[in-house]
Amino acid sequence: ASNPTIRIGFVSPQTGAMGSFGETDAYALDFIRKHIGAGLDIRGTTYAVEIIERDSQSNANRAAEVAGELILNEEVQIIIPASTTDVTLPVSEQAELNGVPSVSSTAPWQAVIMPRGGDAFEWTYHFFWGLEDIIASFVNMWSSAETNKKVGLLLPRNTDGEVWGSEEFGLPPALRAAGFEVVKPSLFEPRTNDFSAQIAAFKSAGCDILGGLVFPGDLRTAAIQCAQQGFKPKIATIAAGLLFPSAVEALGSLGNGMSTEVWWTPAFPYASTLTGESSAQLAATWEEKTRKQWTQPLGYSHAIWEVVLDTLKRAEDPLDRASVRDALKATDLTTMVGKVKWANGPHPNVSKTPILGGQWRKGEKWPYDLKIVEAKTYPIMEPQAKLEMMSWQG
Amino acid sequence: MSKSFGALRVTQDLSFEVGRGEVFGVLGPNGAGKTTVFNLISGDIAADVGAVVLDGQDMTGIPAFKRAAKGIGRTYQIPRPYTQMSTFENLLVSATFAGQMRGQAAYDHCATTLDECGLGDKANRPAGSLTLLDRKRLELARAMAGKPKLLLLDEIAGGLTDGEAKDLVTLIARLRDRGVTIIWIEHVLHAIMAVADRMMVLSFGEKIAEGKPDAVMRDAEVRRVYMGIEA
Amino acid sequence: MRWVDAIIQGTLLGGLYAQYAIGMSLMFGVMRIVNIAHGDLVVLLALIGISLAAVFGLGPGFLVLLLVPIGALVGWALQRFILNRLVGDDPLPSLIATFGISIALQNAMLAIWSADTRSLDAGALASKSFQIGEMYIGLLPILVFVTAVILTAGLSMVLKGTKFGRALRAAAADRDAATLSGIDTKSIYAKATAVAVGILGIAAVFQATRTTIAPADGGGQLIYAFEAVIIGGMGSIWGAFLGAMVLGIAQVIGSRIDPGWGVLAGHLVFLVVLAWRPQGIMSRK
Amino acid sequence: MTDPHFATVHRHTSSSRIAIGCGLLLVLAIPSMPFWASSGHIRWAVELGCFIAIAQMWNLLAGYGGMVSVGQQAFIGLGGYALFVLVTLFGVDPFLAVPLSVILPALVAAPAYMLLRRLDGPYFAIGTWVLAEVLRLITSNIGAVNAGSGMTLKAMAKYSAHQREIGLTLLVALLLLLTVGGTYLLLRSRLGLALTAMRDDAVAASSQGVNVGRMRFSVYLLAAVGTGLAGAIYFMAQLRISPTSGFDPNWSSICIFIVMVGGIGRLEGPIIGALLYFFATRLFGQYGSAYLVVLGLLTLVVAIRAPTGLWGLMTRLRPWPWFPTGYILTKG
Amino acid sequence: MSEMLLKARALCGGYRDFQALFSIDFDVAKGEAVALVGANGAGKSTLFKTLVGLLPVKSGTLTFNGRDIAAMPAHTLSRQGLALVPEGRRLFKGLTVEDNLRVALDHARTVEPGETVWTLERLYDLFPILAERRRQVVEKLSGGQQQMVAIGRALMAQPKLLLCDEISLGLAPKVIGEIYAMIPSIRATGTAIVIVEQDVSLAQRCADRIYCMLEGRITLTGASSDISREQITEAYFGVKHAVG
Ligand SMILES: Nc1ncnc2c1ncn2[C@@H]1O[C@H](COP(=O)(O)OP(=O)(O)OP(=O)(O)O)[C@@H](O)[C@H]1O
Ligand SMILES: Nc1ncnc2c1ncn2[C@@H]1O[C@H](COP(=O)(O)OP(=O)(O)OP(=O)(O)O)[C@@H](O)[C@H]1O
Ligand SMILES: [Mg+2]
Ligand SMILES: [Mg+2]
């Protein structure tokens, strides 16, 4: 009595430097395995579902190796590169060449499409917001406060930094167009120990706003050096580095009042198509089970499974890669993070989801809470507070 | 030839000649500069001034490995075997590169040389496992394996029993009879006296005596500086 | 002014590298132990310190007092039970062993502490600075630098002028002969590694104060420490200190020219020094 | 045999004849895989082949040349980038570009050696590491190769899966022949003697007529070329390269692990080590940190208990060499 | 014989998988000079290394100054007055001449009142060239100079028993003469000496007793004045070769 088995490949960074991204992935994986324990009923046939997970060790080569293995040896029907461009890019590349549908998220779509040439793809699909959205969100946030409209940008020398800083489609041209003056020193090497050159440049230009994309380790180094060097911008809005509460806590009191993009919060007005749980409930369950504060990737870690299961259910033959691909392409589903529909996208392989702006404030239950301060770009909810100026109180 | 290490002048304007097929002994107090002279001849270190001429060919500026191929073979006072290679392979290296032999000819030559030096039964042992004395024998054997025209021997008789020293002297005499020129640094006087055609005594990098062994040994200066005999 | 500032910031950055480099100079330069896990030990000590701080509410000053003995103990055990079996002329075995330790340690820490970034909150200390004209000089970097100077001076004195230092150098040169001279080489080595890792207890506190700590961070500063030791000349503690300064200044000046080239400038200066004086600037050879 | 000094020297054994025969057959079987094996196994063969080649080159450099490098990723990255640049920027056919890709590693290795040649032991190791970092940093600052974000090999799409597999397996077979077979022949030749001698004592070797400088240079260059070729093939299979993946210090870790666990200074070592590493990673990789902790501890145990590696342990049980390079005098 | 300083009975030893010493009985009395002779590979150095604890005692007893030292850690023996001038010098490379000597001084036996003490000055008097080179790292010394440092280092340990392996190797006749001339004065302070010496007549002249070794066994022992050259030669080589 063996049911036909659908195999799903799942690659995420569980060990290594990007390990924190893997945390919610593993959590969602746990959930989904229980959820479909008895198998997936698709138009009368019960399929067993086997999810084969692989650790990328935070290493792009390893990600490509395991993707090849999942596709060629394990012969999965669909592959999910979860979290970080170091996983998404190599895995998507393998999927595209070997003809396996792949669905990814949690990176601005340009970072997944542009380094691969920017054309349309046949097999690889991505849902997330884009740089145009984060720029709009940042601009809205910054415009809501009194500043001299001078922005200093800190960006690292890696795929993300290159895309964000691109003079073609990145932050600088868009910000200029929105009336900001941009100071952009060249990209810094990740885990650098000294930001005095950048800070000197920002200081001499008199920037009121510090913006950019910085990972947590660099952010603390930079923030402390800003304070030491007497560079105290009114607003500090940093992508990526302020995603996790642990990173904000690591900043100490300097983290108070820093602002960031918000992919998802418990306040999102969406519910799960799998369980009917609201966003708030999803976060509450997580906090109860892990005794840790909710994190933004949680919503996406969940939503990606909504998309995958929905796709499989609609697929004509869930065991056939091409028909899975066709179903994926036809997705129209309102998930935990918003609507996913590739037909709408700015690019055939991209479906856009909402982004909001948030500010970290001293919290009650947890040391810091993320308050939504900007919801103009995607007016899916009311802002929870108004952006306040940074105090730089060490 | 002159050579200084920083402020320390080791050899100074030293000149000497060795005839073909001669056994030339070099004596001198410790630190006189004997080993340094060998290093200059073999090219391990470069002279500040002066020249080494082998068979009418100026060796100045020629690197050590080429000098070896041109027929200068040497032993080291403190043995330097290739510890992880077998004794036989140690010899094979110099037979191949210094002696420019190949294949069977090289094998035969090395096997013979091992026997001559009393290492025949240790041919396949890793050189690192040899005792100090065997390592010294290996030094000699390895130098011989390179079929040198000029053989530089740095204290190879130390620690030998009388009998062994006699065997060694016989071996060296045999080498000379084959036409090999030998310069031999030695403190074991009875050994070197037994075979040397001429000798030179160095002190503080300068030559204080040169000539027939007996004459040199009778020299008052030599007796005082080197033997410690006040006369 | 801009360049004076760069040199000052570079020197202070050098202080950070020196804290890593002097312990390494003792192990790498004197004992010829290539310790790949050097950085991971800093992370380990920092994570222990952060956890202690969270549980007992300890300040950084007090943590130093705790972490140095913990580090010393770890170092002692590391040498006694593992590295003592591997020391010799060949640096390869120690390289392999510490490489294995590094991987195991990193992942064990990941399992215990998760991949979260953590840090020590030093309150106002971290962001305080002095203003001289247009220049700002951070208090924390000054503390790092001064500590490095004191450690360097102390360690150098111990190594050059004490019985312990001579015994250690002798044991490093020839273990059997050192034994013959009455030196308990295993215990001397264990003590030396205890000192080297104990120093890392201090570095760990500073590192956790000035940036964040996560289990995978260990390798980050390793290359700089090695570079500093080599630039300075193996075995010379002041050399390692000087090497750290050269590296720090090169990086800061490099990044003033173009922020993308800072780290690269440090490496290039390292290569230039190697080409010019392979034995290091402080070596008398 | 009347001459009492007619020396008999043995080099081959029956085990080596069998092993080399089998090895050759295996290597020659690789290009036939597309006609009978699954795509998954072909991919395994390609990756495993690259690991063996990279490790063997490291073994040549460290185990025989005495130059312990922790910067071989420099040449992996250069080989990979050369391929991507030739294909993407100059439109060269990918399979043709692979052999051409070794030119760049060679061109960089020559001056790099000039810089590194005066260093030995740990100095050399750190020097190579810094050099690799320098290359990574420079690459991530070059706009033409997409700087920090890396490149994609789109041109592979013009071949069918079957064609790609034929091409890749041919290249891997060639790679193994060149790196493993080439190293074996090198070590059996008179140069092998010189190499082993100078590893043990370079000064003595040069006074015995060995041109130590040139030997070292050649070994460094050969290792760079072999490693570069493996890098090009590896990244051809991965389709993407970035400065952090191409010049990843993790490559050195892999080399060290494979060679040390397998057995350094023996040709058999890297092969055994690569097999172990490859299958262990594939079988236990999903256990995340626990697997890596075990891997680390295993390395530690090998360093302490079995410095000659698995091959050393095996030869102690059964001295059956696959690739004998020594000379055994049986009669003389 | 007077008071025994070192006493070995049925001593067996050797390397990991190679036994090199077979049931050795070996005694040295206080202030005595003993010569140990034997062909290359006989096991003289191995015996020395076993006596000072660098190699393990496989069986048999070994006492020094009345104490059982067979199982004591090697590094504790020098404090009890056992010193070795090792074969091949084994100096501390990278350390200066003076630091080499100081290391030994640091861990020297505490001398009893009235005993003569070996000081740096006294040693420099003996080997003036070392005073000149005191700040030089030892690997830059000539072979003979290094041997002097090795001897000096052993003396700095203030030994009661000095074991000298091939002490004259590489030394000029003048220096050898001086060293042998010094032996009585060393002995006068109560220090016993064991020397390995290939020059049998020299050994006979300066030693009270002689031990001959062959293939890991003591084949002959007795007062040096009682033993003839022929006996020694025979003990040296067994019956295989007789030197003509
Ligand atoms: N690399 C070096 N640097 C500095 N001084 C050196 C170096 N090599 C040798 N010397 C010095 O040069 C002098 C001559 O040394 P050399 O080894 O030639 O003496 P030698 O005559 O062979 O003595 P011995 O009989 O003791 O072997 C010695 O005083 C020694 O200290
Ligand atoms: N490290 C070692 N491992 C194994 N065997 C060894 C080792 N060192 C020496 N031997 C062996 O032990 C035996 C005794 O050697 P030892 O060095 O004690 O002789 P010796 O009498 O000192 O000779 P020599 O006059 O050459 O110094 C020899 O057969 C030798 O091959
Ligand atoms: Mg000499
Ligand atoms: Mg001996």
From TrEMBL, chain B:
InterPro entries: AAA+_ATPase (IPR003593), ABC_AA/LPS_Transport (IPR051120), ABC_transporter-like_ATP-bd (IPR003439), BCA_ABC_TP_C (IPR032823), P-loop_NTPase (IPR027417). GO terms for molecular function: ATP binding; ATP hydrolysis activity; L-isoleucine transmembrane transporter activity; L-phenylalanine transmembrane transporter activity; L-valine transmembrane transporter activity. The keyword Nucleotide-binding applies. Residues 1-229 form the ABC transporter domain. SUPFAM superfamilies: P-loop containing nucleoside triphosphate hydrolases (SSF52540). Signal peptide: none annotated. One of its GO terms (cellular component) is plasma membrane. It holds the Pfam family ABC_tran. GO terms for biological process: D-alanine transmembrane transport; L-alanine transport; L-isoleucine import across plasma membrane; L-valine import across plasma membrane. Keywords: ATP-binding, Nucleotide-binding, Transport. This is ABC transporter ATP-binding protein. It comes from Ferranicluibacter rubi.
Automatic annotation (TrEMBL), chain C:
The keyword NAD does not apply. Its main location: membrane. The chain crosses the membrane at residues 6-29, 41-58, 95-115, 135-159, 228-253, 259-276. One of its GO terms (biological process) is amino acid transport. GO terms for cellular component: plasma membrane. It is a multi-pass membrane protein. It comes from the Bacteria. PANTHER family: AMINO ACID ABC TRANSPORTER PERMEASE PROTEIN (PTHR11795:SF445), BRANCHED-CHAIN AMINO ACID TRANSPORT SYSTEM PERMEASE PROTEIN LIVH (PTHR11795). Belongs to the binding-protein-dependent transport system permease family. LivHM subfamily. This is Branched-chain amino acid ABC transporter permease. It comes from Ferranicluibacter rubi.
Automatic annotation (TrEMBL), chain D:
InterPro entries: ABC_transp_permease, LivM-like. GO terms for molecular function: branched-chain amino acid transmembrane transporter activity. The chain crosses the membrane at residues 18-36, 42-62, 74-92, 98-116, 123-146, 166-187, 217-239, 251-279, 291-314. The keyword NAD does not apply. This is Branched-chain amino acid ABC transporter permease. Keywords: Cell membrane, Membrane, Transmembrane, Transmembrane helix. It is a multi-pass membrane protein. Its main location: membrane. It is found in: Cell membrane. One of its GO terms (cellular component) is plasma membrane.
UniProtKB/TrEMBL annotation, chain E:
GO terms for biological process: L-amino acid transport. InterPro entries: AAA+_ATPase, ABC_transporter-like_ATP-bd, ABC_transporter-like_CS, BCAA_Transport_ATP-bd_LivF, P-loop_NTPase. GO terms for molecular function: ATP binding; ATP hydrolysis activity; branched-chain amino acid transmembrane transporter activity. The keyword ATP-binding applies. The keyword Repressor does not apply. Keywords: Amino-acid transport, ATP-binding, Nucleotide-binding, Transport. Residues 6-240 form the ABC transporter domain. Belongs to the ABC transporter superfamily. This is ABC transporter ATP-binding protein. It comes from Ferranicluibacter rubi.
